[in-house]
Design goal:
BirA Bifunctional Protein, domain 2; 6-stranded antiparallel beta sheet; about 450 residues; alpha+beta
């Protein structure tokens, strides 16, 4: 049980939560505490602290707001010869309409059961908010306003009738959506954000910052709403600045006291009012700038939340893992590139060796051919030497023994023909290279080429 006799110093808290909610139905008996049965969440020992700020007869309000339009509507129905279409009691008609409620209710709360500011401060803020609510929402006619201090957290119920105008039929009717649209709000959320912005400003005037509930999911969802609230605060502040005329700050009249040797400034009442207007103008400017700053902060926070969400995506985590793995494998990749270069160099050397091997085989073939030619020449030379020796022997024999000149002549002619067929045979034999020397040179060339490839 909260000790309401103990005053809580406002300096102990720097921030407090706020809330603004609406409902299609309200309960006058609950708000007035006229129920026969006390609700379980109510502490009857503190009911005396409750405050009734506005408590009007709703039927009378309907007559004041819709009476003139209703009379005109009924007169038009009679003129059109449809008296059966007249509405005798607009309030009863709305009460029987399943689509429309006769009034709506808003609940405004400052703090929560775990963290509250002093009751007198929260009550003061709620009363100021009620005044702002009526000023900012001229088409929401307040029929009841009740502050409850006998529940867990001080809060206020505002019962209001939404009034909209039409060009045909009943020209003044009950319509919440149309009333909000005619006051310049596109959606209910826009209107709610505007009320929250107004409440937050009043809380700040008391020296408290707005505290958001410690719920990350809800906090993320409220970022966009918070941005809309700040934009609405900025819009309202700028509208006020456009309507205000900033007076010139008067030159102060400075007087010097020769006795106390001090200076004093004297202003007239009109001059003092001008200074107050300047201060008020600057305060509104500060409010606009703070709202803009809060809007930018909310955008930044929203971006950071989105980035954090993206960072937690599986594909982002996998990308980070792969990036780390790639960083580790960079040295391996560099080593692989180096090995690839070496491998290519070895391939080139092998190709060179293969070419040398082919060339060596060709040389061997040529060498074999040369050997064969050399052998052939040797055979020819041996044959010639044999023939020469034979010829000489035969010639000598025939010269000495033969007395037949015709045989001698025939042998001489044959030898002459043989010499003519090989006129340079001696030179050819002298030019032939030595076979063993050729083989040795070929082997040395092969060894040099192999050393060069290595």
């Amino acid at each position: 049980m909260r000790n309401w006799n103990r005053k809580t110093s406002s300096s102990k808290l720097s921030s407090v939560s706020i809330s603004f909610s609406t409902a299609a139905k309200g309960n006058f008996n609950h708000n007035r505490r006229t129920n026969s049965k006390v609700p379980e969440n109510v502490d009857p020992t503190r009911t005396a602290f409750n405050k009734i700020l506005i408590d009007k007869d709703i039927r009378q309000v309907y007559k004041e707001v819709f009476g003139e339009a209703l009379a005109e509507y009924n007169a038009n129905q009679v003129a059109k010869k449809h008296p059966e279409r007249q509405k005798k009691d607009y309030y009863s008609s709305i009460c029987h309409d399943k689509k429309t409620e006769p009034f709506r209710e808003a609940v405004v709360q400052i703090g929560n059961k775990d963290k509250q500011i002093p009751r007198w401060e929260s009550n003061e803020i709620l009363q100021k908010f009620l005044k702002k609510f009526q000023e900012n929402n001229p088409q929401l006619v307040v029929v009841g306003a009740y502050i409850h201090n006998d529940e867990a957290t001080p809060h206020m119920h505002i019962d209001y009738v939404p009034v909209a105008t039409y060009s045909k039929g009943l020209k003044t009717r009950v319509s919440n959506d149309k009333a909000l649209n005619q006051m310049g709000y596109k959606t209910w959320n826009d209107w709610k954000d505007s009320q929250m912005a107004c409440l937050e400003n009043l809380v700040r005037e008391k020296g408290y910052d707005r505290e958001y509930m410690n719920n990350s999911n809800r906090h993320i969802a409220d970022v966009e709403k918070f941005k809309r609230v700040q934009k609405e605060v900025e819009r309202l502040a700028n509208n006020k600045l456009e309507k205000m005329e900033l007076p010139d700050i008067p030159e102060p009249e400075i007087k010097f006291n020769p006795i106390t040797k001090t200076e004093s400034v004297r202003f007239t009442k009109a001059e003092f009012e001008q200074i107050k207007q300047v201060i008020n103008y600057q305060q509104i400017q500060i409010t606009s700038l703070e709202a803009h700053k809060s809007d930018l902060s909310a955008k930044l926070e929203n971006v950071e939340l989105k980035l954090d969400t993206v960072r937690k995506k599986p594909y982002v985590l996998e990308n980070e893992r792969l990036s780390a793995e790639l960083e580790k494998n960079k040295s391996k990749i560099d080593k692989f590139d180096e090995i690839s270069i070496q491998n290519q160099q070895l391939k080139n050397q092998i190709n060179t060796l293969n070419n040398l091997q082919v060339e060596n085989n060709n040389l061997k073939l040529e060498l074999e051919k040369e050997k064969q030619r050399s052998e052939n020449f040797k055979i020819v030379k041996l044959i010639r030497n044999g023939l020469d020796n034979l010829f000489i022997g035969v010639l000598d024999e025939y010269q000495n023994k033969s007395k037949n000149p015709d045989i001698y002549t025939q042998l001489f002619d044959d030898n002459t023909d043989l010499n003519k067929s090989h006129p340079n045979i001696d030179q050819e034999f002298s030019n032939l290279p030595d076979v063993d020397e050729l083989i040795e040179i070929s082997e040395l060339d092969r060894e040099k080429d192999y050393d060069h490839c290595r």
